[in-house]
Structure formats: C-alpha cells, structure tokens
C-alpha cells in the first residue's frame, strides 16, 4: 500500500489555485468590512450640522461631552471586566498546574550584588541614595581610663608571674593587700 506521490507541477498548480482563492476571499472580506464600517458610522454618527448661533453651538458641545462621558464609562467597565477575567484565568492556570503536579522550580543563579545595585534593580532610576553604611556611623572618641593605664604600665606579664611564683611571691601578694 504505497501512497501515490503528487508531481511537482500538479502540486504547484494546486498551490497557485489555493492562493488565488484565498486572495479573492480576503478582498471580499475587506469590502465587507468597509461596508460594515460605513453602515455602523451612519447609524451611530449622524452627519454634523454646523450650528449658526452661539446657543446651538453650546448645545452641540454639551451633547458631544455627554457622548464622550458615556463612551469613557463603557471603556472603563470593559477594562475592569477584562482585568477580572485575566486574573481568574491566571488563578485557574495556577490551580491546573497544582493539580497536574508538573510545576518545575526554576534553577536560580547566585548573583553577587551590592545593596546599591540591588536597590537600583528593584526601584529603577528612582534610587539615587548611596548606601554607604560606614558613612552613617557615629564617630566616637576613645577615652583612656585610669585602670587601663595601670594594666598597660604593668609591663611584661612574664616578669609579673616570676615575681609571684614561689613563697616570695605569695609573701609579696599578702603584703600588697595589707
């Protein structure tokens, strides 16, 4: 049961016929769209008659403003409906992924970033503050206490231990305390 292959000339002839039919259909569709647009415009947008007095002109402006407000309300309502439906679609997609259990966690790469670079990435061009933490630290002068001076003046600790070793050292410790 071998399939019969079409010759290249027949294939190109059929292709050209299909393209010509598609071209005719597209032209007809464009004509229908133009006719539909004209019909819609004639129904919804009557021809404007230019008023001759100031009062008629003001009345025309009021009507136009009223129509604009109506169109804005409809647009806003439609935007809200689309936003709600998009959110519902996203929620349902997440539920489907949870049920299917085929959610893959993306592998995250380690990126070394400074705090400034991270804030610039998150906030964009809004971030101009430099995060130099050392600049904000309080400067403290170190006061030298008398006890610290005495500890430093003691000198070499080895001499101190040698002096206190043995009975002589114990005797000196008792004499110093008394």
TrEMBL record:
Molecular function terms from GO: actin binding
GO biological process: cardiac muscle contraction; skeletal muscle contraction
Keywords associated with the record: Acetylation, Actin-binding, Muscle protein
Pfam families associated with the record: Troponin
Any one annotated GO CC term: troponin complex
Highest taxon of source: Eukaryota
Subunit structure and binding partners: Binds to actin and tropomyosin.
Function description: Troponin I is the inhibitory subunit of troponin, the thin filament regulatory complex which confers calcium-sensitivity to striated muscle actomyosin ATPase activity.
Family membership noted in the UniProt record: Belongs to the troponin I family.
Protein name: Troponin I, fast skeletal muscle
């Amino acid at each position: 049961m071998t399939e019969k292959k079409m010759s290249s000339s027949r294939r190109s002839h059929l292709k050209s016929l299909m393209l010509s039919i598609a071209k005719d259909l597209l032209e007809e569709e464009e004509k229908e769209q133009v006719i539909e647009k004209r019909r819609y415009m004639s129904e919804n947008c009557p021809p404007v008659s230019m008023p001759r007095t100031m009062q008629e002109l003001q009345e025309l402006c009021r009507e136009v403003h009223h129509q604009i407000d109506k169109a804005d309300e409809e647009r806003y309502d439609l935007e809200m409906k689309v936003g709600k439906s998009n959110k519902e679609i996203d929620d349902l997609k997440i539920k489907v992924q949870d049920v299917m259990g085929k959610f893959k966690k993306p592998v995250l790469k380690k990126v070394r970033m400074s705090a400034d670079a991270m804030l610039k990435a998150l906030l964009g061009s809004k971030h101009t503050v430099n995060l130099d933490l050392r600049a904000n630290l309080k400067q403290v002068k170190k006061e030298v206490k008398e006890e610290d001076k005495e500890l430093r003046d003691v000198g070499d600790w080895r001499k101190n231990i040698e002096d206190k070793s043995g009975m002589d050292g114990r005797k000196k410790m008792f004499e110093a305390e008394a």
